[in-house]
Design goal:
The structure is a single chain. With 125 residues, the chain is mostly helical. It is built from five helices and no strands. The longest helix has 42 residues. It is elongated. The termini are far apart.
Length: 125
């Protein structure tokens, strides 16, 4: 697939795809003999991982480190595992904070819904 086709498939810009490769968030993409990017299945899997991790808030630097370790081979399996486990913990903490925020927001919504029904707000926060 061309960079344009991949861009359209994943709804990200061509510049973003090139950036992912340039900074090392994905390994170098397969090229045609003329040097044009020619995304293969493996390349697309890396793009999907990068998109997923970025949408989850994974820092660019962490993704770069993961790719670097991957490229170093099986001797880095334990390091990659640790890196992913640490990021999972970060996501769990973010989810906890989001859940707490949603609980508070739901409480406020319930109070305002009751106020709409009664015409009176029983609390002012």
């Amino acid at each position: 697939m061309t960079v344009k086709e991949v861009s359209e498939k994943y709804n990200i810009t061509q510049d973003t795809l090139r950036y992912y490769e340039r900074v090392g968030m994905i390994p170098p993409v397969t090229r045609t003999p003329g040097g044009a990017r020619n995304y293969q299945k493996t390349d697309l899997e890396w793009v999907e991982l990068a998109i997923c991790m970025r949408s989850a808030g994974l820092p660019v630097e962490v993704m770069i480190e993961y790719v670097k370790l991957y490229q170093e081979g099986d001797s880095t399996i334990a390091e990659r595992l640790q890196l992913l486990q640490e990021q999972r913990e970060v996501l769990f903490e973010q989810r906890k904070q989001l859940d707490e925020t949603l609980d508070r927001l739901n409480y406020k919504i319930e109070r305002y819904e009751a106020a709409v029904d009664t015409g009176k707000l029983t609390w002012k926060k």
